[in-house]
Amino acid sequence: MRPQAWRGNMGEWTGMVTAHGVTPADVLGTWSWDPAVLGGVALAAVLYAVGVRRSAGGRLDLFPWWRPALFYTGLLVVLVALVSPLDALAGELFAAHMVQHILLSTIAPPLLLLGAPFLPLLRGLPRALRRDVMIPLARNAAVRRVLAAVSQPVPAWLLYTGFFWAWHVPALYDAAVRHEAVHILEHTVFFVTGLLFWWNVVDPIPLRAHLRHLVRILYLFVLVVPDSAMSAYLVLSTAPWYSSYLSTTQTWGMSPLDDQRLGALIMWVPGGLLYLLAISCVFFSMPEAREEQAQEQNA
User: For a 10 Å CB count at each end of the chain, is N or C smaller?
Assistant: First the structure.
């Protein structure tokens, strides 16, 4: 069991403290000052800033003002998901946990990729570390084969969708709520598979997505089907799936089944709208993409 002042997002812990008089106000005032999250986000922010500055005078067209803005917004989304009171609330309500998952898998990854992070993060490293470790690692044939395999559209789609369904299996989901190590693994999987999936939609220049723009629309549209199916199962269920919330939802004026249906609706409606927004963005960016491709062919 973790200290109350540090982290409060686990169903088992929240159920115990709620029984001892902790109120919704207590939960909503709980911030998770996880040093791993704070340190990782801070390191990424510093490396990116240093890398962009070191790129000045070269390919400045890679980093117009909006790319850093989107990258730092993506980091802020990660902090909201893992550090804000939402993290504590996710241990009390299934609906809050679904919001957390949407932030980590559907919102943060495309924002970070739109920031074109690969060059800045690499150039932000100390020169010796970049020269002796990161560049040889990036050029390693085995590493490149693995990355190429998992980032291809079909494997990335299957990983993203497969883990989405797997983590909603009751036994695995309850284990993630009750055990910190499993919960960290769950969040890591959602975030990493999110990056792989969105890599096929967003061009994280100087790298490119593996799909043409028109195919990206189909790629996103097909994803709506399994997401909607899972949401429908949860909404139409006549009994709660997850034992983790049986003793916590009453504090928030809901039954476990009401909480489950609310969380499913959050996945279904706002989550679906996010994919439709992405489809719209891809569609309206097609003329610009064709122009850039023509310029590259004529260069």
Answer: C
**Run of H or E residues at 83:** none
Phi and psi of 3, rounded to 5°?
-60, 140
Q: How far is CA 157 from CA 60, 162, 216, in A?
A: 32, 8, 12
Token readout for 176 is 């993630």
H runs (alpha helix) in 179-212: 180-199
Share of the chain above pLDDT 70, in %: 87
CB contact at 8 A, 197 and 109: yes
pLDDT above 60: residue 19: no
Which residue in this structure is represented by tokens 């919960």? Answer: 183
* Closest C-alpha among 246, 24, 23, 209 to residue 114: 209
What tokens appear for 168 in the block? 């909603």
Q: Which two tokens stand for residue 219?
A: 């790629």
Which pair of tokens denotes residue 108? 């943060």
Residue-by-residue DSSP string for 49-63: HHHHHHTTTS-GGG-
Is the pLDDT at 17 greater than 60, yes or no?
A: no
CA dist list (Å): 124 to 57, 127, 135: 15, 8, 13
For the chain, the straight-line distance linking the first and the last C-alpha, in angstroms and rounded, comes to 61
User: Maximum Cα–Cα distance for the chain, whole Å?
Assistant: 70
Q: Cα separation of 31 and 85, whole Å?
A: 5
Side-chain half-sphere CA neighbours of 275 within 13 A: 22
Read out DSSP for 246-297? TTTGGGGT--HHHHHHHHHHHHHHHHHHHHHHHHHHHHHTHHHHHHHHHHHH
Q: What is the DSSP letter of 172?
A: H
